Amino acid sequence: MFGVGFLPYPSVFDKTFSTHYFNGGKQEKMKKRLLSMLMAVLMIASLVPATALAADADACNHANVQTVSIEKNAAAKIPGVEAKVCADCGEVFGYVITPFAELRDQCIVCKNPVTKEVQAAACGQVGLTVTYCGTCGNDMGIAPKGVAALKHDLVFTVVDKPTCTEDGWGYAQCKVCGEPFFVSGPDSEVISLVKAENKKAVADMYTKTGHNEKAAVAVEKDVLDKDGETVLRYAAVAPTHVATVGYGETVVPVDAKGNYSAYGEEPSGEGRTATMVCPDCDAVVADSIVLPGLNDAHSSAMQLEIKHPGYLPYAELNKEGKLVKHDGVTDVFYCGACNKTYGGETISYDQYFKPAYNFGETKVEGATAATCIKGGYTGTTMIYMQGTDIDEFGNPNGYWDVVKYGEEIPALDHDYSVKMADVAPTCTKTGMKYVDMYKCSRCGEVQPDQGKSYVLPMADHAWNLKVLVEATCQHKGLTAIVCDNCGYVDRTKVVYTKVTSHVAADALKDAKEATCTEAGYTGDSVCKWCGTLLEKGEEIAAKGHTPEEVAAVAATCTETGLTAGSKCSVCGEVLTAQEVVPALGHDFKDGKCTRCGAADPDYVAPVVNPFKDVEKTSPYYDAIIWAAKEKITTGKTADTFGIDEGCTRAQIVTFLYRAAGSPEVKADTVNPFTDVSKDSVYYNAILWAVEKGITKGTTETTFDPNAVCTRGQIVTFLFRASGDEKVATGTNFADVASGSYCADAVAWAVANKVANGFADGTFRPEATCTRGQAVTFIYRALAE
Questions:
Q1: Strand extents, DSSP E, 168-280
Q2: 706: buried, middle or exposed (CB in 10 Å: 19+, 13-18, 0-12)?
Q3: Host domain of residue 402
Q4: Total domains, the chain
Q5: Do 96 and 188 reside in the same domain of the chain?
Q6: Residue 279 and residue 132 in one domain
Q7: For tag attachment on the chain, is the N or C end more exposed, with fewer CB atoms within 10 Å?
Q8: Are 743 and 731 in contact (CB under 8 A)?
Q9: What pLDDT does 79 receive?
Q10: CA-to-CA distance for 17 and 11, rounded, in angstroms?
Q11: What is the spatial distance between Cα 389 and Cα 401, in angstroms, rounded to a whole number?
């Protein structure tokens, strides 16, 4: 019925006790129950050791206490709750439970305990679970359980990265609750919420880095100032050894081109370190330092080789009084620091003593340009003259003589012709306003005592809002104030925007299109952030099928067909099934199907004999009928074949030409025969036969087409047409000698059953070969 915390909130108990238990008809009985409960609690508290209480106090000082307030709701049967909970450890210090039922409806003895989480723990918010009577809402005497507020699980984002000299800034956002926090730099308060072991790493994300001296880079070439004179940054120059003579006592001078010259300067061999700059901001982190030449730096490690001392070039007169030139040589020495031997280089006499100037050469000395405030000088013109003195080697001396003295140039005075241009102020720099003010076109000096100038104050920043974290229905947003012109961010002024109402997501949840057989759904409108249902969708009725005719497929002689049917044009479901129509089979007539034109495999065509002089009993009957059918021959006339007439040379080659398919004769083929006309029916056949080597002319210029062929000639033509492949069996005919022109052909014909001999053992090669015999030979060679 009530809860009480003795420390530090006794007033809660007093108020509750007096309000609820000293009115009504049951006061005395309830008073006794209350006093009994209080005595029991005091007795238990007295048994707790002091050391245990002290230990608890050391564990948490309860400096962060939150109040949990829940209004009673009779309709929902939720009692009112007021409690104090430590946000750091979850300990409950005092609580009051107010029944949701009226006094008259409260239980005399509560027997229906209900334990409920009335507030869930969240980021920065404690949780609380209480136990009460589910019938009337009275306290069941069971202490509530508190839960410490959850810690933010922060993800840090850097918006403007830190530089070598400036801290960066950004924001953090809790992964659990979405709450945003502005991070103005490494000292931002939100970083204190990070675990101790991670604080430095997070702070470093926003801390200015300082110049990256460890990764400093060397300047690659000298950098001059705006006037092109003063060197601001130096590239590295390696120090070197310099050449000497006389055991290192004298440094050999060199001219501007590096040649050894008596008129040059003594090199120092000095070098210098490069200017080192920060790779991130280009600031100088180490100045250039001059390095001494290696002759000085490595003096203790140098060992001159006395056997090879150096000397300068010289000349002397020989016995004949002629000048003899001698080149010099540099000292040879070993440097232990370099682990290298140097020197021994030739010093050319002619190069060394080559004058720096030629006689008659001129120069101008002391010339200076006039300025606005100081006069100048045109300079003195000098000429290099040959002297009268001659050295021991006959070389004249030289000297400089004045050709013309220069003149003074008066100061130019200022040219105040350039009007001073105004400088517009920005949000980071002041500007300037010039009224009737001019400067010198030559030196830039401002004309004194003329016009006026005013300093224009810096312009205001063009502030604009930059959304860092968008506000949602679950957490507030974060907006920074940024200057559109210079990008400056006012880190002291950020805007935390309020939590918004729910916003519908662009896509509807669980949307489903209706199909032919299944209902669809319009989809629920839900909040794009938290998923809360904003508007429930509606069911979409199934569309039903859309019939589409399926054409029948006609049966053929060999393939089955199908009757007409129907299907749904949307989903493809079969609505009316098609039935198989059996194949029709062939309807053969006269050897061919009347429907599809296929040939009857069992059909035997009737034999047609166009020739009245060819009896069916003739031994040549099958051959002549085949030849006529294949258009190898057409007979002597339309109805006579001339079966017993002799076969001419033109006729046999024509038969063979047609049997070969009447191949095309090349257009450039030359006809050597005077007795073969181009208009003759056997023209192409004869040229083809000659080209293939089947026959030759009777002479070089005649073919004799009408000459009758013998049996030997005919089988020879056939043999050659077949490819001249000899057989091993030979021939036993008495009238065919082994050396005969037709011996191989006769043997081939007999072996291949193209021709036979006579009963008397002869072949009769010289006997006339009739047309019937010739066609029969071709028939046996090609058709059988």
A1: 169-174, 180-183, 217-218, 223-224, 231-233, 244-245, 250-251, 271-272, 276-277
A2: exposed
A3: 362-409
A4: 9
A5: no
A6: no
A7: C
A8: yes
A9: 95
A10: 10
A11: 16
For residues 675 and 759, membership in a common domain is answered with yes
Terminal Cα distance for the chain, rounded: 125
Contact (CB, 8 A) for 126 and 67: no
Q: What is the pLDDT of residue 726?
A: 86
Q: What value, to the nearest 5°, has the Cα angle with vertex 348 and ends 344 and 349?
A: 130
CA angle 39, 42, 46 (to 5 degrees): 140
Per the listing, tokens 């007295």 go with 46
639 and 758 share a domain?
Answer: yes
Encode pLDDT of 500-549 as tens digits.
999 999 999 999 999 999 999 999 999 999 999 999 999 999 999 999 99
- Give pairs for 585-592: CB < 8 Å, separation 24+: 585/557, 586/557, 586/558, 587/557
pLDDT band, residue 34 (cuts 50/70/90): low
**716 φ, ψ to 5°?**
-65, -40
pLDDT in the model for residue 306:
60
SS3 39: helix
- Provide the CB-side half-sphere exposure for 724 (13 A, CA): 6
Examine the domain organization and report whether 776 and 669 are in the same domain: yes
Residue 321 confidence class, pLDDT cut points 50, 70, 90: confident
Same domain, 325 and 429: no
CA dihedral sign of residues 677, 678, 680, 686: positive
pLDDT tens for each residue of 382-430: 998 888 887 665 677 778 899 999 999 999 889 999 999 999 999 989 9
What pLDDT score does 225 carry?
A: 79
pLDDT at residue 38 is higher than 70: no
580 & 470 share domain: no
Q: Do residue 673 and residue 739 come from a single domain?
A: yes
Long-range contacts of 561-570 (CB under 8 A, 24+ apart): 568/516, 570/515, 570/516, 570/543, 570/545, 570/546
Q: CA-to-CA distance for 75 and 2, rounded, in angstroms?
A: 21
